Amino acid sequence: MLTVTVLILNVEVLAAEPLAYPFQFAVVTSAALVTQEHSINGLHLNLLYGANENVNGMDLGLVNYRVQNHRSLQADLVNLVGGDLTGFNITQNPFATDLHVLA
Q1: Rounded to 5 degrees, what are φ and ψ at 102?
Q2: Which residue, 16, 38, 52, 99, has most beta carbons within 10 Å?
Q3: Whole-prediction pTM value?
Q4: What is the DSSP string of 47-92?
Q5: How do residues 42-97 score in pLDDT, each as one tens digit?
Q6: 70-87 b/e with 16+ CB inside 10 Å = b?
């Protein structure tokens, strides 16, 4: 059931985000596969710190920053979001301007 929820969130934003990538891996933001200006619709992984415009899908790492919105299953130590945070959150410290946690 959790997988279905994540997939629905991805399908919702695919049309709205034409420059989104399906996968991101970052050691830090400057050492990442996808630059910070792009969104991720899929799996976002980071070792130390990762930043992207939006993330929709699954997010795993230590510290994450989203310029806009975050709609995903999250398991991070610290998660910073400039816009809306929607999804299942296993984060120790979720910081967002508007928090909508489903779990």
Answers
A1: -85, -15
A2: 52
A3: 0.71
A4: SSEEEES-EEEEEEEEEEEESS-EEEEEEEEEEEEEEEEEE-B--S
A5: 999 999 998 899 999 998 988 888 888 888 888 877 777 888 878 777 766 555 54
A6: bbbbbebeebbbbbbbbb
**CA angle, 42 then 97 then 64, to 5°:** 40
Per-residue pLDDT reduced to its tens digit, 4-23 = 334 344 444 444 556 899 99
CB 96 within 8 A of CB 67: no
In whole angstroms, give the CA distance from residue 64 to residue 67: 10
60-100-2-68 Cα dihedral, nearest 10 degrees:
-50
For 28, the token pair is 């830090």
Structure tokens at 68: 């806009």
Residue 5 or residue 28, greater confidence: 28
For residue 99, which amino acid is it?
L
